[in-house]
Amino acid sequence: MADKTPPQKSNAPYAARIDPTKEGLSQDQMHFIRQVELEQWKRRTSKLRTRNVVTGLAIGALVLGIYGYTFYSVSQERIMDEIDEEAKRARMQGPKTSAN
């Protein structure tokens, strides 16, 4: 990714890409380049960290929402209670035999 060159060359000196190993820069210039690259890296990683935290919180909220909704909907289901009540009514209304 660092080896890619811009599609067209710019005449602006601030946009020109240089290869520090081939340009013959002084130690001070190399040190400055390293400092600038480090600051850019720190800035990018802080933005990425923030974005990752926001994404993680959004996914966590979605999971908790689905989990909560599932518990809420299951707690409202009365299917088994209704089946038990129907079976009890059927037993009460059915014929009385010695097997009951």
UniProtKB/TrEMBL annotation:
Role this protein plays: Core component of the MITRAC (mitochondrial translation regulation assembly intermediate of cytochrome c oxidase complex) complex, that regulates cytochrome c oxidase assembly. MITRAC complexes regulate both translation of mitochondrial encoded components and assembly of nuclear-encoded components imported in mitochondrion. Required for efficient translation of MT-CO1 and mitochondrial respiratory chain complex IV assembly.
Membrane topology: Single-pass membrane protein
A GO CC term assigned to this protein in UniProt: mitochondrial inner membrane
Assembly: Component of 250-400 kDa complexes called cytochrome oxidase assembly intermediates or COA complexes.
Gene from which the chain derives: LOC102201573
Classification via Pfam families: Coa3_cc (PF09813)
Family label: Belongs to the COA3 family.
Keywords: Membrane, Mitochondrion, Mitochondrion inner membrane, Transmembrane, Transmembrane helix
Organism: Pundamilia nyererei
InterPro entries, per database record: Coa3, Coa3_CC
BP GO annotations: mitochondrial respiratory chain complex IV assembly
Flavoprotein in keyword set: no
UniProt subcellular location: Mitochondrion membrane
Annotated transmembrane regions: 52-72
Region (Disordered): 1-23
Main location: mitochondrion
Name assigned to this protein: Cytochrome c oxidase assembly factor 3
Source lineage: Eukaryota, Metazoa, Chordata, Craniata, Vertebrata
Domain (Cytochrome c oxidase assembly factor 3 mitochondrial coiled-coil): residue spans on this chain: 40-86
